[in-house]
Amino acid sequence: MATDTILLVDESADARAWLMENARSSGDYAWIEAGSLSEARTRLKAQLPQLLIIAAQLGGQEDGWQLMSEYALSVPVIITTTHRSADEISAALAAGVRDVLVKPFEPERLTLAITRALRLAKTQRERDALREHVARQTQEFSALYTVGKTISNLLNIDEILTLVVWAAVNLTGAEQGSLMLHDPVTGELYLRAQFNLSAKTAQKLRVKVNDTLIGRIVQSGRPIMLSGNDLVKVQTSLLVKAILGVPLIVGDKVIGALTVDNQLSPRIFGKHDVHLLVTLADSAAIAIENARLFASAERERAKLETILREMQDLVIVTDENLHVLLINAAAGQALQLDEAVIGRPLSQVVEVQQLVDLFEQRHTEEYVWRADITLPDGRVLQGQLSSLPGVGYGAVLRDITRLKELDRIKSEFVSIVSHDLRTPLTAIRGYVSLLPRVGPLNEQQQDFVARVERSMDSIVDLIADLLDIGKIEAGMDWEMTAVPLHIVVRESVERLRPNAEMNQQTLSVNVPELSPVMGNLRRLEQVAANLIGNAIKYTPARGCINVSLHEDDGFLVLQVSDTGIGISLEDQRHIFDKFYRVESEATEKISGTGLGLSIVRAIIKKHSGRVWVHSELGKGSTFTVLLPRYREEKKFDK
Ligand code: ADP
Question: Is any atom of ligand 1 closer than 6 Å to the C-beta of 593?
Fold first, then answer.
């Protein structure tokens, strides 16, 4: 432990000697003596002692008091005096003197005064050091906290990195600092942020990794702390007296280094500085990685935005509760919506009810959610809704106005042609049937007439079907009443039974009396006749056909099953399309128009029902029709 130094100021050499002699018992001190005020001042300038013992009567003018008042605040002072005035003593204590010894005093009194003053001074020194240490730690903590907080709030990477270097320089008490990043393409380190570097140094800071001191940090992935002779040994061209650098690490890759140095002051860095710099380097590495991720996410977002913006199709995305999340430019324009609708419920901002209904389909168990939507300007869009896991729902709407128009023109054309063909065909049919009556026909002629009549029947059937489908789609002749479906089905079966018998097929029926459906009688008859007719047509001789009807959960369920030729999965997708006929050896000799099932589907759709098929090639098919049961509106008597 270092010995405490005591400066003893007294004109009398004897008094000084007595004091030193008698103070010895309280401890081993280094004594400095001064016999006059000026000598005392010189000594004090050279070195501040741990204790000052001053004789009040110096130079006959009480100069001791003067000296005491100059130093009492920086060094503990004990005054020795011959006066006994209480005023004087209390004034001295008020000025900061630790003790006043009135001569003559006992040696015990002296040693007590010295030990007490020194102990007090020591406690004070320790307290000051502790306070300084706590203040410094608080400052470091608050600087690190500020850096951390700012980093998570700032997205501007330049600002973040400059802040990190600034904090590094300030917290380590360095003169300047830099943050260099590794360019994997050129293998060089380039300056990314700096604090206090001269413009000249900053300009030329682009160096190869393997020939610099900072490069060594990147290569080794470990901190470097050098000063004095160490720097000479590594032969660096950096003009510094002390340097400290730590690596910036992202994952397991070193991406650069954070460095602070002193060019002028010889102050060296310590372990604590390494710790501070590593903490800051970690923050910088996180910020750089975040900025990289952000930039790449931003690029992807910009790409998506361009695609959405330039897309001709309308795109609308909502959250799970149908609050608008996104509308692209095409949708905004077509539906006259702007950014203000974001976050609002779709049903409140979109005026086209069909579009709202499309989103409402999300509760149905349909395989795909689709709808044709007519805009106020007359355009027709085909919309498809999809569920977007984690987001909500997205609808894409494509303009099909032109396709619809073409479809309409085609239907109109078909209907006009069919209509115009019907009159001459009736005439041809009439004349052909008259042929046997106007003279005897030989066998060959009879055969030819029969063939002409069969072909005529096919053409007439086709025309009837074409006109029918046109009318159904146009919603013509559509009178709806409560229809007892069980009667319709039973009658259809009986009408077609002769055909089944001709084929020696078993036609079983399981049709109990049930509640009616709301529908069009003639069209429902058509549905039953088409399905039962097909079952008979596409089932080989001696096969079985079963027709059943039952009620289930508010719906009437009609099922027509057969043990016929069956339909492949691929064909099942198309058989409800207009003019689609399965082409196979089994169907080769069976005549038909390919319109029967499309008529069935159109009729069922108009009745808000559904129709589908289950079939296995070579084993048979089951067609199922679902129609909502008729509900009579309840009337209440008052
Ligand atoms: P078609 O006038 O040809 O019978 P449909 O529209 O009624 O026209 O039927 C379309 C096609 O579906 C038929 O050509 C046939 O290949 C197939 N099909 C319909 N019903 C059955 C069935 N019960 N069994 C096997 N195939 C069938």
Answer: yes
